[in-house]
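Researcher: For the annotation table, I need structure tokens for UPF0145 protein ACFYXQ_17950. Please keep the output clean. Sequence:
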Amino acid sequence: MSNEYSGGQQPNAGVLVSTMNDLPGFRVERVLGEVFGLTVRARNVGSSLGSAVKSLKGGELKGQTKMLVDSRLEAMGRLTEETASRGGNAVLAMRFETSAGELGTEICAYGTACVVSPA
């Protein structure tokens, strides 16, 4: 069951992604280098105004939350696509970096692409 306000890697993904620096039970055969997936998203004017009004009285900005979840999933998808295109089957030390600017919110997923095999 999927929740529109959360996410993560699907169990059947072709590229294993870990926030750890190693993978217990696996051996790193080759390090392919740094990979990243990037997206920049902007909210529409109506949604931004709604969020501004909501922020005055407090509470979760569900539209913003949904946008950030979608952005992280898109960045993660680009990260795993790049890893697979280089011949990798895992990303180690994956991190997200988020920054907000005048034009929108930037989400970057990055890590180290590797080829791993069971130990």
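Researcher: And a one-line annotation?
Model: The mean pLDDT is 85.
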